[in-house]
Design brief:
Elements lengths: L2 H13 L2 H13 L3 H7 L1 H10 L2 E4 L21 E4 L10 H6 L7 H5 L3 E4 L21 E2 H11 L5 E3 L8 E2 L2 H12 L6 E4 L17 E4 L16 H8 L6 E3 L1
Parallel strand pairs: 1-2, 2-3, 3-5, 4-6, 5-7, 7-8, 8-9
Helix pairs in contact: 1-4, 3-4, 7-8
Amino acid sequence: MNERAVGKLEDVVRALSLAAADYLYSELKKQGCLAATRLASSALRDLVDGSVEELRVTQAPLLNPVRVPSLARWPRCHTVIVQPRFGSEPVDAAVLLQAPFLGQLESSRRRITCVRLELDRYPRTRPGSGDSGRLESALAVSPTVCSLAGWLPCLRELDLGCLDAEEWTCGGRAAALMHAALASLGSVESLALPSVALLPGIEALAGSLRRLSVGSRLVKYREGLDEEPADEDIESVRQLLGLEELSS
């Protein structure tokens, strides 16, 4: 493509309305050619980056503010989905959940309203590859969530509901500290927790919480993992006067 043609293409792309740009982005995404499109011209690169609303993190960037991709590159991104890529290397969910926000501008972090952890339980690898599809170490839930609360002042939704029983650790007092940290934001409306053991202190979120999911999504597929909340935890949930949806 000659320079004149590229110039005309860029003029057309930059003249697109937001709705038209989003439609073009969705079609390019369906075709699996976003990466190639970004390389075609600066206007197409800006169109692709400007239409991204969800960012998937599959591996941790180097823990150096200079090396972590700037969230400013995706000015409309509001959701970060952490989806570990299991393989021969250990997967540390705590690092994956926090690394994307290291060294980011506050203005960029304020745009992030949703963080969701997703674990692929059925990795497509050859037998004997050593890929178990599970975390190598248990996630320390409370300190990780407290850190996220510090990074993301406008967080509205946090989903850790995919964690299985052996994949997280958190004591009752630590759970209360976690809920207090989230409550200090005043914006958390939706929370998914892997276990009723993380309910202590959840009444701190009475001012904002609208949706609560409790219990690993694997529980219904396994025997002997059904959990019953303690009486005091039930009372804590009852204090969530604004709660509109409760599920497991």
